[in-house]
Structures are given as structure tokens and as C-alpha cells.
Amino acid sequence: MQKSCQIFRAGHRLGLVPLPAFRPLQYFSSFSPAQACHSNQVKEQPQRQTSTKDASTTTTIRPSLSMWQLKFWNCRSTWKRAGINTLRCLVGCTLGDFSALWMLQTYYPALGMGKIMAASMASGITTSIILETVLLRRGVDQLSWPMAARTAMGMSMVSMVAMEAAENIVDYHLTGGVVALGDPNFWVAAAVSMTAGYLAPLPYNYHRLKKYGKACH
């Protein structure tokens, strides 16, 4: 037994015995910012430090970044992924929100602006989940319908509510919440409100991607 161990060690030094290969983990998403910008909880792979007498293996832990450090917010690939996720959510939220707002104002004006706004926000969140389910199924992720639906419904409610709230507050401030499709001022106000809805949850989405590697949408 001792002789075989000596032969095995000699083979390692001469390069005749290959080291075991480790397969990289496959990430759930087809595009992950962690591939370019490491998250706070990632450990570096063991590095071999060779000397003339013996070889030793050491493992170092990358120091964690705080969200209060400027370097935490400097990952371009994370911003890109967060921007795509937020844009997809914005499309779904805006379609449901403005459609419900127009329909309720047209056919059920007696409900009052408060109830109409609340119903339009719920409609926007619902259409966002539906759109995300379709994209997860038909897009590059190619998830099954049940898995796509569970993933879409597991999106961050904080992000979606922040988006809906910002969009509706700005729209109500500029137009009083009135949907007038023939008025150019309405479309200008809609563009401003959608910009506010996009920017409101964007830092939060970046933070979750950077720190936890989890997409909100």
C-alpha cells in the first residue's frame, strides 16, 4: 500500500497521473452576470503553490463587496441583465395597466379614480407575469410551462409594485389618470411615466442580481 502511494505521488510530480476534472456548475439562466462579475459569496478555485520540496493547496475567499461601495455598482454585465429584465417587466406591466385604465374609465367610470388605479395596477402585474411565462417558455431558457409559470410568479413583488406605483403616480400627476388616446399630451405623459416605472426598480434588480445572483423578473 505504501509503495503504491509512492508511485501515485511520483506520477503526479511527473504529470503522468491527471488531476480529477471538475465540471462547472450550469446556471439556471442562459445569461448570468456572475460569469463576468463574481457575486459576493463566490469562493475562488483552489490554487496550487509549488515549491522545490512539496506542493500545497490553499483556498482563498474573495472579500465581499458592500452595496455602499462604489465598486459594487460597476458591473456592466449585471446592469445589462438587470436592464433587460426590467424592460421585459415594463412591457408587461404597461400593457395591462393602461389597457385596464382605459377600459375601466370608458365602461365603468362610476368606480372612481382610486379603484380604477388599483385595478389597473393589479392588471399590470398579471400581464407582466403572463408575458414573462411566455418568454421563459419560448425564449432562450426553454423552460416547461409549469416551471416557467412558477418562475414568473416567483418574481419579486417589490420590484413590480415599485414599477407600477412610480408609473401610476407620474401619470396621475401629469394627466389626472385620464387616458385620452387622441391627445398628444397623453402620449408624452405616458412616455415620462414609463421612464419613471423603468428607473424605479432598476437599482433593486441590479442589487439582487449582483448580491444573490437572482433575477427579479
UniProtKB/TrEMBL annotation:
Biased composition (Polar residues): 39-49
Keywords carried by this UniProt record: Membrane, Transmembrane, Transmembrane helix
Segments for region (Disordered): 39-59
UniProt cross-references to Pfam families, sorted A to Z: DUF4396
TM helices/strands, residue ranges: 86-104, 116-136, 148-166, 186-204
Entry keyword annotation includes Membrane: yes
Keyword Transmembrane: yes
Residues of the DUF4396 domain: 78-214
Superkingdom assignment: Eukaryota
Low complexity bias: start-end ranges: 50-59
Protein name: DUF4396 domain-containing protein
Origin organism lineage: Eukaryota, Fungi, Dikarya, Ascomycota, Pezizomycotina
